[in-house]
Amino acid sequence: MSAPLTWEEAVRRYRSEPANDKGVRDNYFDLPVLQAARRYADSEEFAEVERLLGPPDGGRVLDLGAGNGIASFALAKAGWQVSAIDPDGSAEVGVAAIQALAEETGLNIDTQRTQGETLPFADASFNAVHARQVLHHAADLELMLREVARVLKPGGSLLATREHVADNPRQLEQFRASHPLHGLYGGENAFSLPRYLSAIQAAGLRIEKVWGPLDSILNFYPGSEEQRQAALRRSGRLKWALIGFVMEKRRASAAGRLYSFLAVRP
Asked: What is the rounded distance in angstroms from the CA atom of residue 252 to the CA atom of residue 248?
């Protein structure tokens, strides 16, 4: 059996297949990275992130597990002082990609290559922590969230979006088997919803809001808000019909379904 690819190699392999063109754009893997970053900054998803985090007012935000920097770019463009961290240092999907974005656009984005479990920042350094598709990759979820709580200022917010949920080991394997990149690099994971909630609370954070798969554009992308509202209307009309009940039950319990969380450090 061949060794797993690196994350960058896996994305390159995925990008090289013409059949994956839509998935490449939906995941913001397209090149140049600035093109993808501008599209994310203009998205309905990021508009909701801005609404939930509130006005930056010169505040500092940590973009945790920043990947290729699409959210770091959007947050900096919106007026936040951004620090971006990621364990991957590569030029297309890692820290080097974020550094190139900052240089190309003149935006001030501080970058460091590190794990979320060992944040190189002083206590109470940030007004907010943003984490898009990050917590489910944690090697130690509880430790990562304790570190997040430590670097947040009192009253600061954690917005963790698009986290995969699996109820049990069987669901986790189903999710991994269906993921288009896991077979290439082997790095996909998911936790149960109670595990996320207990880890957030154990870190000393107060949970303000939890969104399930249909509850927010945060989880519904690449669908639009108009499509989400239409899906909600269909769900409402069918909720007493057997077929609607079965479809909703399957959606609500699907392996790898997406949840988002807003929490505050008291």
From this structure: 6
Q: What share of the chain is helix, strand, coil (3-state, %, to 5)?
A: 45, 20, 35
* CA–CA gap between residue 252 and residue 49 (Å, rounded): 23
Taking CA 124 as the corner, what is the angle to CA 122 and CA 128, rounded to the nearest 5 degrees?
A: 115
Average pLDDT by consecutive 10-residue portion of the chain (266 residues)?
Answer: 86 97 98 98 98 97 98 98 98 98 97 97 98 98 98 98 97 96 96 98 98 96 95 70 43 86 98
C-alpha–C-alpha distance, residues 7 and 13, integer Å = 10
pLDDT > 90 fraction of the chain, expressed in percent and rounded: 89
- What domains lie within the chain, and their CATH numbers? 7-223+255-264 (3.40.50.150)
> What's the rounded Cα separation, in Å, for the pair 67 and 188?
14
* Distance between CA atoms of residues 218 and 173, nearest Å: 24
DSSP string, 77-139: HTT-EEEEEES---TTTSHHHHHHHHHHH---EEEEE--TTS--S-TT-EEEEEEES-GGG-S
For residue range 145-166, list pLDDT tens digits in order: 999 999 999 999 999 999 999 9
Read off the pLDDT of residues 40-57 as tens digits, 9 standing for 90 and up. 999 999 999 999 999 999
Amino acid at the residue 53: L
3-class SS at 159? Answer: strand
